[in-house]
Amino acid sequence: MPSSLPPNPTVALPEWKVATLGERSVLSPLGLSKVANDEIPDYVRDGMRVLHDAELSPGEVPEVARSFEKAGPREHLYFDPKATRAAIVTAGGLCPGTNNVIRSLVLHLIHKYRIAGVLGFRYGFAGLDPASKVPPVSLSTDDVRHIHARGGTMLGTSRGGHDAAVMCDTLASHRINCLFIIGGDGSMRGAHSIALEAKKRGMQLAVVGIPKTIDNDIAFVDKTFGFETAVSMAKVAIDAAHTEALSVLNGIGLVKLMGRNAGFIAAHAALASHDVNVCLVPEVHFELDGPNGLLPFLQGRLEARGHAVVVVAEGCGVRLTQGGTRDASGNLRFASADLDIGMHLKSRIDHHFREAGIPITLKYIDPSYMLRGVPANAMDAVFCDELARYAAHAAMAGKTDVMVGRWHRSFTHVPLPLTLSQNKRIDPHKELWLAVTETTGQPRFVG
Fold first, then answer.
1. Which residues have a Cβ under 8 Å from the Cβ of 268 and sit 6 or more positions away?
2. Based on the domain organization, do 174 and 299 belong to the same domain?
3. What is the DSSP string of 21-44?
4. Is 385 designated active site?
5. Which of 46, 129, 185, 215 is catalytic?
6. Are 254 and 185 part of one and the same domain?
């Protein structure tokens, strides 16, 4: 049955187009409006787009082809809710808000779409591999009633990939139609591999990713859930370091924060604190020694003000070595002795001031895992609920190989190949890093 909504013929570049399983013919049970400006919220037309570029130079024309498909409920569905079974997987590191997403997915799918059932596959992609011998669990509304008040994930998690063919066999054996994968860039790669395998087999499987990483480093989304909670927790640690540094003569507070390849937590926490004197992130090169190095700067800072606070992202440790051990997902272990930038800086600062004959009191704080193991704060809780609902709409409409995101405050469908095509990092030449350097007053620590 064709939609009664008028079409919107916007043409997107091929890499910006969202894959769909086929024509939609099932009327949505949501009962939303088909009339613009009605008191009831509207359904969303497939042709509605969200521009990637919001800023234009004088005389420049918006590039409509570089735009996202707008997310939201569709008037007609691909799947018949009464015959639809969904599954949820949580993978990668812990992140505040994961339980919120699980809960909202289950509640929306069951209460609003009234689907046949929801399964939770446990311990990440391992739960989709029979060799792991971890059976899935059925998720009812009662099962998820209170989980949003707890940190972590009720389904468990793990790192590392598994064979897409084996995982598709598992999904087929459980008659799964919609698969929701909650995770970071590694998890989205796993989601993409499942979507490709399902397409090769002709499986009617909608694969929808929900971006989860406190590092906020997934491309083509303005924010990932858990990030705001992590920044709030990081600020608590920075405030404690500032108090310690202020309370003694020549006090230095050193705080190491999470951020493997991107320093968004460190940058935003420094901005939130207003008490940070030096912020170090993986994207911006710095030197410790020499006339413009960090250590001489700290010495001058103590001579002038008597205290200093330094915040460093863990990913800065990659400058210490070309080696380093890796976890099951291939990520460097920045807590290992050869990559731990926090302990390295502590040692170098102690040595510098000892050689200079200047007594200092240095307090080192590493709150890393406290940032990701707590429940979501209020703003993240709202964001998690929104992401879950838009993911449910996407899957029921037959969207696949796609991630739900947000861009310019609008929720979007981002093709997984597109988001996996590049990384999101702090640009040292743009507003965020300028704000950090203006707030801290730090110079460029290079020769």
1. 227, 231
2. no
3. -S---EEPTT--BSSTT-SSPBP-
4. no
5. 215
6. no
